[in-house]
Amino acid sequence: MVRGLGRLSAARTPPLPGTDPEEGTAGTSRIGNRTLALWLVLLTAAVVLIDAFTGQELPLIPLLVVLPALASVFCSVRQTAFIAVWVTLVVVGSRITSTGAFWDVVFLIGFTALASGLGVVACAARIRHATEMARLRSATVALQRQILRPLPVTTAQVCVHGLYEPIEEDRFVGGDIYEVVHSSHGTRVIIGDVQGKGLPAIGAGFAALGAFREAAVREPELTAVADAVEDAVVRHNAYSAETGETERFVTALLLGFDDGDKVRVVNCGHMLPRLLRDGTASVVTLDRTSVPLGMAELSSEERTAEWVAFPSGATLLVFTDGVTEARDATGAFYPFDERLGEWAGREPAELLEALRADLEEFSGGVRRDDVAVLVMSRPPGGGHPPARPGRSGRRPTERESAA
């Protein structure tokens, strides 16, 4: 029987691409068949031997009914069923020659069979629940990939690494957003922070991302891209007002990269970027900061784009306030610029890992806001071929391409 049991779980179907691996392993055992069989035999032998020494005054064999219950937590349904049958046979075999009262023996055997059966049912229910949760998690992963693309992303003009940690540890998406779009006008990047935290802020964030993806390919001017995202956030807020939901604004930085040594930036109420170069980190100064997306009607000034130096070998870092507003146990804010200066000479992936670990240690694992960080550098030796122009076939304007 043990040999047959081994064949039952020998073959495992690999999970499908894009699904949570837990979905394919929800029904598998956490204990190998050989190990399980060995422990089962040893425990049974120990209980039977002790029961033989204690005699009728203290029967211990009925205690074996706890094994199916324990197995339902760690084993597959087939393993649990095997243990249930084993325990039932052992109890029946030990009591069938018993000199006790007939109805006591019948009751004990019936109770053992019932308890063993309930263990199998509990195991099946656990696995069904775990499978359902894994499927929901797979759906969440698929949704996340539509909202926020996996990083790093390399285009012809820039290589983007990133760190993203929502405030809810069991969620994949929060109130911070980012996107990288390669178009005939160059590579456009957005990082934003939706008013509010976590899941309630996803709606406005998704509206902003959808508009950015379309406008980044269509519009030759970066300011026009910002205006398109503004309109999308306003429309979303109008819908939110009709449905009784909270209206939200989005602080954001929009960046436009071409093949030159500068980058175009539109600041919509967001925190200033940091430039890492020659082992030092400095704040990128922007002369014009417009209102956040969704609040343009409150300002009479149009959004403007500025050129920022981005020489070869330099790294540009943008982030949300989940980094700078992280606090320790005493309430002190995270010394972001001080720490960043210590890591200025590291590669993007190493820098992000150092930042993530340091934030975790500084805050004691307590998150107060979503965290998003993008680290952008020029791709070594050039990136992927440029994307094809859209149907408009337009190339970057002279104003957009001038250094």
Provide a compact summary of the structure.
Helix content is 44%, strand content 16%. By secondary structure, it is an alpha+beta fold. The termini are far apart.
Please give the structural blueprint:
Elements: H1 2-8, H2 21-25, H3 33-54, H4 66-74, H5 77-95, H6 102-147, E1 153-154, E2 159-165, E3 176-183, E4 186-194, H7 202-218, H8 222-243, E5 250-257, E6 262-268, E7 274-277, E8 280-283, E9 306-309, E10 315-319, H9 321-324, H10 336-342, H11 348-363, E11 371-377, H12 398-401
Antiparallel strand pairs: 1-2, 2-11, 3-4, 4-5, 5-6, 6-9, 7-8, 7-10, 10-11
Helix pairs in contact: 4-5, 4-6, 5-6, 7-8
Kindly describe this structure.
By secondary structure, this protein is α+β, with helices and mostly antiparallel strands. 44% of the residues lie in helices and 16% in strands. The chain is built from twelve helices and eleven strands. The protein has helices at 2-8, 21-25, 33-54, 66-74, 77-95, 102-147, 202-218, 222-243, 321-324, 336-342, 348-363, 398-401; strands spanning 153-154, 159-165, 176-183, 186-194, 250-257, 262-268, 274-277, 280-283, 306-309, 315-319, 371-377. It has a six-stranded antiparallel sheet. Strand 1 and strand 2 (159-165) form a beta hairpin. Helix 4 runs antiparallel to helix 5 and helix 7 (202-218) runs antiparallel to helix 8.
